């Protein structure tokens, strides 16, 4: 996995040793926002609850009210019962949550915030963060595949753009896409997600035809090698530590997510 995953494991298991067998193994989403960014947003929009995607570092989680995953983001946002929510940092996931709930997403600029049209019942203040893998997929990709493979089932991860999600047949987390493929009778399917995730789903469903459309493998996950994994286990290298005051506050945001479900 990558660093934010390792940090989250440490947040929930402070007494266990967590190793990350790579020196960096970052994430474009996690690196798109800092704890200082969140503090500044809170100053600009006092009293508005802050939801952060799990794909963030521990210090960012510590500044937020609740975390979410790609599969429960909508539930978390709705559970807050607020007319306005700050959703960080994935602008595409925020857009897909807004689309699913019929709400409006707005983005703060340096000097002001762009207000939505009058009459909108619910607003989400988003951030301009994107997954560098999922932002590569386009509606044209889907149209080209549908032309070549009639009846193909298109499944997209919610980190894809709202336009891509709207053009797909199903959109949800990797685990739910895995189950959807297992249950489908479609003649073929296209997965719009990270290539290695697609490899795993294909391996679990050898009797079904997967259309290959990998634009890029996650460069950060691919920093993990078998050799580094072995060295980490042998020598306790690349131990993940989270400062205790940050860990406690970040755990509160994760625990609130788990309570919502």
> Could you estimate the helical fraction of the residues in percent?
40-55%
What is the number of helices? Answer: 11
Shape: globular
- Which band does the percent of strand residues land in? 5-15%
Task: Report the biggest beta sheet as strand number plus sense, adding barrel if it closes.
Answer: 5 strands, parallel
Mean pLDDT over the residues? 89
In order across it, which strands form the biggest sheet? 2-1-3-5-4
> Gap between N and C termini, in Å?
23 Å
Number of strands: 9
What's the order of the H and E elements? HHEHEHEHEEHEHEHEHEHH
Cα-atom Rg, whole angstroms?
19 Å
Give the low-pLDDT segments.
Answer: none
Structural class: alpha/beta
Structural notes for this entry:
- The protein is of the alpha/beta class and 261 residues long.
- The protein has 11 helices and 9 strands.
- The chain has helices spanning 3-12, 35-44, 58-62, 73-79, 91-101, 139-148, 162-167, 174-183, 195-204, 226-235, 244-260; strands at 50-53, 66-68, 84-88, 104-106, 123-125, 153-156, 170-171, 188-192, 209-211.
- The strands form 2 sheets. Strands 2-1-3-5-4 form a 5-stranded parallel β-sheet, with helices on both faces. A 4-stranded parallel β-sheet has the order 7-6-8-9.
- Strand 6 (153-156), helix 7 and strand 7 (170-171) form a beta-alpha-beta unit.
- Helix 1 packs across helix 11 (244-260).
- The longest helix is centred in the C-terminal third of the chain and has 17 residues, at 244-260.
- The two termini are 23 Å apart.
């Amino acid at each position: 996995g990558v660093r934010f995953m390792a940090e989250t494991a440490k947040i929930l298991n402070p007494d266990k040793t967590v190793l990350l067998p790579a020196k960096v193994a970052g994430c474009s989403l996690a690196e798109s926002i800092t704890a200082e960014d969140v503090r500044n947003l809170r100053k600009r929009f006092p009293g508005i609850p802050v939801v952060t995607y799990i794909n963030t570092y521990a210090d960012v989680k510590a500044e937020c009210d609740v975390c979410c995953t790609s599969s429960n983001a909508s539930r978390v946002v709705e559970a807050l019962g607020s007319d306005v929510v700050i959703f960080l940092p994935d602008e595409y996931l925020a857009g897909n949550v807004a689309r699913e709930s019929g709400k409006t997403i707005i983005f703060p600029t340096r000097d002001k915030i762009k207000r939505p049209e009058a009459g909108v019942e619910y607003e989400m203040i988003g951030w301009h963060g994107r997954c560098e893998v999922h932002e590569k997929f386009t509606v044209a990709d889907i149209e080209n595949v549908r032309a070549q493979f009639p009846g193909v089932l298109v499944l997209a991860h919610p980190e894809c753009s709202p336009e891509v999600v709207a053009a797909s047949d199903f959109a949800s987390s990797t685990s739910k896409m895995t189950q959807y493929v297992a249950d489908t009778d479609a003649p073929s399917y296209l997965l719009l997600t990270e290539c290695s995730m697609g490899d795993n789903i294909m391996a679990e469903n050898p009797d079904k035809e997967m259309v290959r459309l990998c634009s890029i493998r996650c460069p950060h996950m691919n920093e993990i090698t078998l050799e580094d994994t072995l060295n980490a286990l042998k020598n306790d290298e690349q131990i993940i530590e989270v400062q205790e005051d940050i860990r406690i506050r970040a755990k509160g945001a994760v625990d609130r997510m788990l309570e919502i479900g």
